[in-house]
Write a structure and sequence with these properties.
Elements: E1 2-4, H1 7-19, E2 24-29, H2 35-47, E3 50-55, H3 75-84, E4 89-91, H4 95-98, H5 119-122, H6 126-141, E5 145-149, H7 153-165, E6 171-175, H8 195-200, H9 203-216, H10 222-235, E7 239-247, E8 260-269, E9 272-281
Parallel strand pairs: 1-4, 2-3, 2-5, 3-4, 5-6
Antiparallel strand pairs: 7-8, 8-9
Bound molecules: adenosine monophosphate (AMP).
């Protein structure tokens, strides 16, 4: 496995693979890799001959008061894990390589509607940053297929719309969320949790699972269920950001007649912001 830091090296290596007719898969990440990321690499291996994992903590998707500087950077460990997982090439560019003229006047991609609520509402500019860097990664790597986690459900919806609207010739594959044994979705940000916070963190998933079960059984009082969930989270010491029952396709607040539902939630434990989601099918009345 090789690691490259520049676009020039990346393109030179990929040109060779393309000449051999290899199918190229891309797994975009911000590094500090865990089993969730490695499951994406495995999916990419099933769909492509060559897997490129990018590791880039993208400054454009962080707000001014967010954790850009403290975000864990563990390139050596990440490389070891990727090598063991059968990854082919690591692309780990510097911010200067990606944004040589700085961020302020860089072209930005805005994806309307699906990026507007939820994380888009509480993290202004976040999805513009994601859509922009993912578009750039698609242009840098020109993959046949790219794999993203359902852990970031709204992000996956933003990327699917981006690819459809801009007619980018890449197949998008979603991969299920990998969780710890107690249900907490694996995340690089879990390392910020104190031991006490880590012990309470599974309540986020547990609360979604309980509400999801009631939705599946046919309940339609979404506002009531959302309020119950917020109370349960606060009782466990969370500061809920949002907990919303949405239509799985539009990500707009679900209507009583909707049957394909996704609960989207974000909540702070101390200073750490956790997100999770759960999709359910509601039985027809
Ligand atoms: P990140 O490094 O957090 O930007 O995530 C990179 C990719 O890994 C994104 O497509 C995420 O959705 C995905 N991912 C992160 N955590 C998980 C998880 N627990 N299970 C599955 N995919 C994940």
């Amino acid at each position: 496995m090789r690691t490259v830091h520049t676009l020039k090296e990346l393109r030179a290596i990929l040109a060779g693979y393309r000449q051999q007719g290899k199918r190229i898969g891309l797994v975009p990440t911000m590094g500090n890799l865990h089993e969730g990321h490695l499951a994406l690499v495995e999916k990419a291996r099933q769909a492509a001959d060559v897997v490129v994992t990018s590791i880039f903590v993208n400054p454009m998707q962080f707000g001014a008061s967010e954790d850009l500087d403290s975000y864990p950077r563990t390139l050596q460990e990440d490389q070891d894990k990727l090598e063991a997982a059968g990854n082919t090439l690591v692309f780990a560019p510097s911010a200067n390589e990606v944004y040589p003229n700085g961020l302020a006047r860089h072209t930005k991609i805005t994806v309307p509607e699906v990026s507007e609520g939820h994380c888009g509402a509480t993290r202004p500019g976040h999805f513009e940053g994601v859509a922009t860097v993912v578009t750039m990664l698609f242009n840098m790597v020109q993959p046949h297929v790219a794999v993203f986690g359902e852990k970031d459900f709204q992000q996956l919806a933003v990327i699917r719309k981006l690819v459809a609207d801009l007619m980018i010739p890449v197949e998008i594959i979603g991969a299920p969320t990998v969780r710890d044994a107690d249900g907490l979705a694996k995340s690089s940000r879990n390392s910020y949790l104190t031991a006490d916070e880590r012990a309470r963190a599974p309540v986020l998933h547990q609360t979604m699972a309980a509400i999801g079960q009631r939705l599946a059984q046919g309940e339609t009082d979404h506002a009531g269920l959302e309020e119950e969930a917020r109370q349960a989270l606060m009782a466990a010491g969370f500061r809920p950001d949002y907990f919303t029952i949405t239509n799985s396709l539009t990500l707009k607040p679900a209507q009583p007649q909707d049957t394909e539902l996704t609960i989207l939630a974000a909540a702070f434990l101390g200073t750490t912001r956790l997100i999770d989601n759960l999709s359910v099918v509601r039985q027809a009345p």
